[in-house]
């Protein structure tokens, strides 16, 4: 006699939900975007996502979307910063039906010299122009700790002309599982 309890998935289905989808349904998936920004010849655009100290939340980077009109270098860093104030950006909940705010903050800057201070470079990408999608699926993780931590994107205009750039980070937040 067949064992329907083991083999019949109709009565006991296995369902797996992607963490970003579940986070979005729970109101814990967020995006931040610079929008299109004009960057001077050989200039820089830096986007910083800041996880404040001691918030007991961990940020999982889901995706980077970016683009440029011509040749650009894109670098990802942990814990880099820039000294200037920069422009504050809204961190937007990916679920329009939930008003939960992110625990993070974000800002960006454009300037002719590299604004980057410190940090550990994770990746470096040469983009010849056009859109770029980097699916990270939570592989870059920024936990809250005793000091603020950052996920930082630097885009360098590799041309001697003005370049239109855009940088977008999508991420989800979850309760921290322990001390970090």
Automatic annotation (TrEMBL):
Domain of life: Bacteria
Protein name, UniProt field: Uncharacterized protein
The species this protein was found in: Paenibacillus sambharensis
């Amino acid at each position: 006699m067949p064992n329907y309890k083991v083999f019949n998935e109709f009565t006991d289905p296995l369902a797996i939900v992607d963490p970003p989808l579940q986070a979005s349904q729970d109101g814990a998936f967020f995006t931040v975007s610079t929008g299109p920004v004009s960057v001077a010849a050989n200039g820089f655009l830096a986007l910083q996502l800041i996880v404040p100290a001691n918030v007991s939340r961990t940020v999982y980077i889901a995706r980077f979307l970016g683009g440029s009109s011509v040749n650009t270098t894109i670098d990802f860093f942990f814990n880099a910063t820039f000294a200037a104030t920069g422009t504050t950006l809204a961190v937007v909940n990916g679920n329009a039906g939930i008003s939960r705010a992110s625990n993070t903050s974000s800002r960006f800057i454009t300037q002719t010299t590299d604004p980057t201070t410190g940090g550990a470079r994770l990746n470096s990408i040469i983009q010849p122009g056009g859109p770029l999608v980097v699916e990270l699926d939570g592989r870059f993780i920024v936990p809250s700790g005793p000091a603020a931590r950052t996920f930082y994107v630097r885009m360098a205009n590799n041309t001697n002309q003005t370049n239109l750039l855009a940088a977008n980070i999508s991420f989800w937040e979850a309760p921290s599982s322990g001390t970090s």
